[in-house]
Design a protein that fits this description.
alpha+beta, five-stranded antiparallel sheet, 28 helices, 17 strands, globular
Length: about 600
Amino acid sequence: MDDGFAERVRAEADIVEIISGYVTLKQQGRNLTGLCPFHEERTPSFSVSPERQLYYCFGCQQGGDVFNFVMQTEGLTFPEALRFLAERVGLEMPERIQANQSSKGQRVKEYLYRLGELAAKFYGNELKNSRGAPARQYLKQRGIPEAIQKEYRLGYAPDSWNAMCRMLESRGVKMKAAELMGLVKKHEERGNYYDAFRNRLMFTITDFQGRVVGFAGRVLDDGQPKYINSPENPIFSKGTIWYGLDRARDQIRRRNRVILVEGYMDVLACVIHDWQETVASMGTSVSSNQVALLGRYTGNAFVAYDADSAGTEAVLRSMNSFTGTGVDLRVVSLPRDMDPDDVLNSEGGEELFSKCVEEAVTFFNFCWNRACDRHDVTKAEGKARALRDVAPIINAEEDSVVRADRIRDIADSLNVPQEAIKDQLRRLQNMESKHKDGTDRHNTKENYGTRRPQQKSAAWRAERQVLQLMLLRTECLHKGCEMLSEDDFEDELHRRIARVILEGDPARGDVNRRVLSCCEDEEQRRLAAQFMMEDLPPGSPEKVFDDCISVLSRRGQQRRVGELMAIISGKERRGEQVPSRILKEQMQLLLELKSRKV
């Protein structure tokens, strides 16, 4: 990527102007504030700094520069955000950048995107003409209005052997590309091509940016198979797509939740009844990539799959994909043998569906209830089996409070002491550890609900203030670069930010931009943005900085004293003479620590 061009775009793309297109901002002191576009709130906690060209939400901790904002709101990669902003400010992408982005693989993708768009228009036109009457009648019976048909680009594949083939040939489309995308098939014996979709209602599948990547064709009678889907290809992978996400993402962000359903018709039914935050998975299981995609817009997912055994198994298969992602999964229990489409179109269906969503249970409670239904928990053997079913979920939980609550609830439910539950969980985790790597891992109480949060010590707070002052005050940046190294920071996140600051040239004066652009992950970028947007600590910045340096220096001396004591003890145990330089260094450090005022 051309850093020079990116800087030109950054300079031209005023962050206030860009964000004002998404958020209503009001002046408040030197900054502007508004309701955060990334989570639902009533009191503004979203702040934009015209001076620093940064934004930060003190509610959800999202923050960064204009590129980060566009990447978050539009779901773009950095190259895509660069192109987006360049077009907004009227700058033409240099040919060298376009050439870098136009590899052979990228050119194939661009060709398939254009081909998908061409096919979607063809199917859409066929739905409108006389041949599309059967599909229109079906949609009318299902209660799908024309506005929704148009918005979701529904179409019709005519009952013809080669209507699509003829259209593609007339446009000069390469048939191998059409075959790759699953629009046509090649006859094994004759060698000619024929239409893959015939006499089917067509659902256009788009990615989160609205680009056509594939299709699903549904029969209009009782024929089989019920659905035919596009094959996976360079632009279509089931594990990276949610049907309807490009249209739902704004509502997902505003309502801070997403409703997950199985079928295309379920999505349309939900949208018609104002559940516009609904998307469908490309199959019954969900991949980690799909969960990560949802995590860009919300941390709350409600899964409303069909209320049958297959639907239940589908929910369970999704478990591992949500674990540890920060997306909280809840399960909506629908009436037996009904899917969201059935519920919403039944008498009183809107109220019933709302009630089901309101009463959604956590994924853990769903699994525990299911385990209790499967096993006779009035007997000891049934209790043990039920606990075994949910043990992986409890042992994978990193939040000690949540884990302790779950253990207590299970103990109360089974009328068993909590210590017995904890003991069994340890045994099961040991068995799992041995199964995975053949070793017996030591398990302590810390693993089961007694892990303590990191203590916010004076040194920890000093690390944060030093980093903030180096980002916001030039004199502190120069002094810090002379006096500090990344080893002076014990917190891993602090150390990574310090590394980026210290590796740069303080004379360049671009430390904020460099830190944000060099962040290794989202957590690091959020914390850096927070440092840049928060007010400086009270008092003289130089004095605060010196005091923090003193705290870090004292901690470093204490750490070194501990290292020297370990060396001395080791040599004494082995009967070796302790070098005088080590004793001298230890004595000097102890005297300095004694005389230093904290």
